[in-house]
Amino acid sequence: FYLLLLLFYIPETERVSKVTAVLLKSRTGEFDLESILFLKLRGLGIYDLGCIGDCINLERLDLSGNNITNLAPLSSLRLLQILNVSANRISNLEDISSCDSLQSLNVAGNLISR
């Protein structure tokens, strides 16, 4: 039991609550948000997707293991092909219906009823 807790522990220094341009640029090394094609923000405690919608050329996005409830900021990501939002607190997927290029979606471990 204790081993499992250690595996999922996120150091306080790595936790963030909101996605910001500074966070995105520091994680990817990209200067322009439009240049980001792949983004992995797993298990950081994120609950607010902030400016992630400005990454308009994003193709692959991993937001698993956070505290996300609202996917609305992803609605502008028309080129998004792969999205992993497993283990969050999402209750509906309506906000990503405009992601026309989506080919793979992982929503396991959320609050989706239908």
From TrEMBL:
Signal peptide range: 1-15
Keywords, ordered alphabetically: Leucine-rich repeat, Repeat, Signal
PROSITE patterns: LRR
SUPFAM superfamilies given in the database record: L domain-like
Transmembrane segments: none
A Pfam family matched in the record: LRR_4
Any one cellular-component term (Gene Ontology): cytoplasm
GO BP terms, alphabetized: outer dynein arm assembly
Protein name, as recorded: Leucine rich repeat containing 61
Organism: Hucho hucho (huchen)
